Amino acid sequence: MPETLLSVQGLHSGYGEVQVLHGVSVEVNRGEIVALLGANGAGKSTLINTACRLVSGTSGTVRFDGRDVSRARPQDIVGAGLIQVPEGRRIFPNLTVLENLELGACRRATRQLKANLEWVLDTFPRLRERLGQRAGTMSGGEQQMLAIGRGLMGDPRLLILDEPSLGLSPLMVEEMFGLVRRLHKEGLSILLVEQNVALSLEIASRAYVLENGEVRFSGTPGTLLAAPELRAAYLGV
């Protein structure tokens, strides 16, 4: 029986009077890569930001590792090991690479900071070469590596990646998905929020498709790709 790590049930959320999510239910089991797919405006970022308490839901529940975190503080959710790498990287451009990485461990994993730093630098050798460089002077691909590395510094139990391939060259996109695959093989559970459907479905255990704030499909990539009407309606493939 799979062990549920993140359970979102009946979630309603939005911004002021604008309702974005309408009763969304999503689960991520331990050891999975789950792809969360959908067009711009479908509600993907609202879903993960509500799960991480960066946006307040109006109803529904969010449970992480069996604990109800629907009203928890964002910093406590990070402390529990639910860590998001946000869309657009959101690094601190005037801080060095090392300073950005160290900030990733400020709420969790401070005792193993040195060990985690070595792990991250082994995973991203280019970051090791640029530890003293200001983050804002790096290329887009290197900044994405830094954003993911900063997330890994917090020793996540579930890592949420929000559009990690956004704005990257085709070569860097392939490299980024290879990295996600490698992190999963090392035992990390991942919720992957992406618009690159083909590559996401290649590596995902299961997938959800959001449309207009509702789940229109959930199941295995094989099931999704085997249904022409689903491919055409929701994935454009």
TrEMBL record:
SMART domains linked: AAA (SM00382)
SUPFAM superfamilies in the cross-refs: P-loop containing nucleoside triphosphate hydrolases (SSF52540)
Known EC number: 3.6.3.22
Alphabetical UniProt keywords: Amino-acid transport, ATP-binding, Cell inner membrane, Cell membrane, Hydrolase, Membrane, Nucleotide-binding, Transport
ABC transporter domain sequence ranges: 6-237
Protein name: ABC transporter ATP-binding protein
GO MF terms, alphabetically ordered: ATP binding; ATP hydrolysis activity; branched-chain amino acid transmembrane transporter activity
Example GO BP: L-amino acid transport
PROSITE patterns per the UniProt record, alphabetical: ABC_TRANSPORTER_1, ABC_TRANSPORTER_2
Organism: Cupriavidus necator (strain ATCC 17699 / DSM 428 / KCTC 22496 / NCIMB 10442 / H16 / Stanier 337)
CDD domains for the chain: ABC_TM1139_LivF_branched (cd03224)
Enzyme class at the top of the EC tree: hydrolase
Protein family per UniProt: Belongs to the ABC transporter superfamily.
Top-level taxon of origin: Bacteria
One Pfam family named in its UniProt record: ABC_tran
